[in-house]
Amino acid sequence: MSLDPPTYLASLQTNIRQRPIPWDGAIRAGTLTEEHYAKIRALDKAKKPEQRKEVVEGDIDGYRLLFVGGSGKASVLETAGKHANVVQYILVLLADLLDAVPSLAKALFKGSDPYKHFLPLLHSNTTEDPIPLLTSNALTNLVSLARDESKATDQALPVMLTYLSGLAKSADAGLQDIAVQEYSSLLFGRTSREKFWNQRSETVEPLIKILQTAAGIGNGANSAASLWSGSATVRNNGFEGSLGGGVGLQLLYHVLLVIWQLTFEAEEVGDDLNDEYDIILLYTHLLRLSQKEKTTRLILSTIYNLLEKSPTSLLPTAVLARLPAHLENLTSRHMTDPDLLEDLQSLKDLLDDYTKTKTTFDEYIAEVNSGHLRWSPPHRSQAFWAENARKILDFENGEVPRKLAEIMQKPWENDKQVLAIACNDIGCLVKEVPEKRYQLEKAGLKTRVMELMQSEDENVRWESLRALGGWLKYSFE
């Protein structure tokens, strides 16, 4: 998938191409050999891409030796050493040639390790040094064109991903976009996607933060709380041009593209992606905000990849996040992209099949398992508790009380209603199945309810008092 080069990088490369280099002086200083210069000069004379392609393909092994060395001959990067102007020129030249002569990419892997003299260039003592940026661009072109899966690439990819993750964490949107576009180029196969996922604290997390900013929510543990509670805010015009958090449409699109590529491995990463980043909830919110077909298409396709590969765990979350209602709203909009329309219909079919077979009990269990409670209909329904309380306590050998205990141990600073709802549920369980109070006490729920009577939140205090009142009633009886 070809993407337009980021403006900053393209401008930097143009300046370096046009910068004059005193080649004669470089030869006298030993910065490059006569043989190196002959190769470079031949390319300088060939102005058109097809002429350059002819020159390189006519001496493919010579150009391999120029860039990576081998057979007892040093590469130009080895001889150039710390001569920054020559190194920068060579890095830009290599990136240009890889675009013009794709066969060069595979040729560079014949013989010596092509990364040996490039990877050290990713490290620099100054943030203004352009060499790491030019190196990552050249290496990304090399890896994506060669589709290489050798041991050398296996060892180089984590180093490249770590460098790019630093750009993705930058406050500079231009550097973020360079990182994200290069990520996209690297995620062409399962191996690179696995490595990307294995380094997710470096690679995925900054991208999720960009999406959270785009969605109008804060980063960190409270981000899901603001989505579940409906307190996320963003401009009414959705993603037009720039987002409420200042995320540009182009950067947003490229981030969505990378996460979509990652979901090609949804069977392996889907559950963890949702557990760690609340991806279904976040993407459902992004879907509601998206006004452009190209972002909507990527959001829908990503959600479909996840739900189709992990239906048991993720479909309940999608229903809780009100995805079916958002899909219905989307259907009413006039859209023309055939891939978008196909994914929209596939998602609707998938969710329709699921909801047809699910009961209110299933929905309640899914909500508890999601780790976040909201005032959905079952919580206030006396009929629901009369019918399902015993079943809830017996489910999976007492799994629900344990999950409620986990939920109640969190402070929920941004969403205190979760604690109020949990107290409500415990009170209903005690009322309907008083003889199993010991099961709730064993899970630590009675103690936690008593603690919440001191809560600063009025609703939490009220619900905890009601729950404890039922407990005391049956204790005295």
UniProtKB/TrEMBL annotation:
Limits of the ATPase V1 complex subunit H C-terminal domain: 358-476
Gene3D superfamilies: Leucine-rich Repeat Variant, V-type ATPase, subunit H, C-terminal domain
Pfam family, one: V-ATPase_H_N
Keyword Transmembrane helix: no
Signal peptide stretch: none
Keywords, comma-separated and alphabetical: Hydrogen ion transport, Ion transport, Transport
InterPro entries reported for this sequence: ARM-like, ARM-type_fold, ATPase_V1-cplx_hsu, ATPase_V1-cplx_hsu_C, ATPase_V1-cplx_hsu_C_sf
Top-level taxonomic group: Eukaryota
Subunit structure: V-ATPase is a heteromultimeric enzyme made up of two complexes: the ATP-hydrolytic V1 complex and the proton translocation V0 complex.
Family the UniProt entry places it in: Belongs to the V-ATPase H subunit family.
Protein name: V-type proton ATPase subunit H
Source species taxonomy: Eukaryota, Fungi, Dikarya, Ascomycota, Pezizomycotina
Gene that encodes it: g2743
